[in-house]
């Protein structure tokens, strides 16, 4: 049997095409395919995110406009409270108790207009 094993081992070494080139080539092709797939997915995801962001632009513009209006109302309310209006003072105090603060900059910016 030892002669058979020795003959089988020599046959495996002498057979052409049994090197590492085939498996390495297959691995390289698989990696290239994976990278191409991931690149196309990233491009697709990027396009989707751009469309979502573009869809939110109108809502963001409306929210900015609403924020400006609310800041104006709050600054007018703070100015009334500073001038001695009892109802405005109560509203400002209720807002303060609920954690809403009125920025003094907004009140002073409104007065300079």
**Count the strands?**
0
Number of domains: 1
Give the low-confidence spans.
none
SS field, number of helical segments: 4
Q: Assign a percent range to the helix content.
A: over 70%
Assign the structural class, choosing from mainly alpha, mainly beta, alpha/beta, alpha+beta, or little secondary structure.
mainly alpha
Order of helices and strands: HHHH
Instruction: Please tell me what the overall shape is.
Output: rod-shaped
Span between termini: 105 Å
> Sheet with the most strands?
none
Please state the average pLDDT score.
84
Strand content: under 5%
Using only C-alpha atoms, the radius of gyration works out to 37 Å
Give an account of the 3D structure:
By secondary structure, this protein is an all-alpha fold. The protein has one domain. Helix content is 85%, strand content 0%. The chain is rod-shaped. The model has no long low-confidence stretch (mean pLDDT 84).
Blueprint of the fold:
Layout: H1 2-14, H2 21-82, H3 86-97, H4 104-112
Helix pairs in contact: 2-3, 2-4
Question: Summarize this, please?
Answer:
By secondary structure, this protein is mainly alpha-helical.
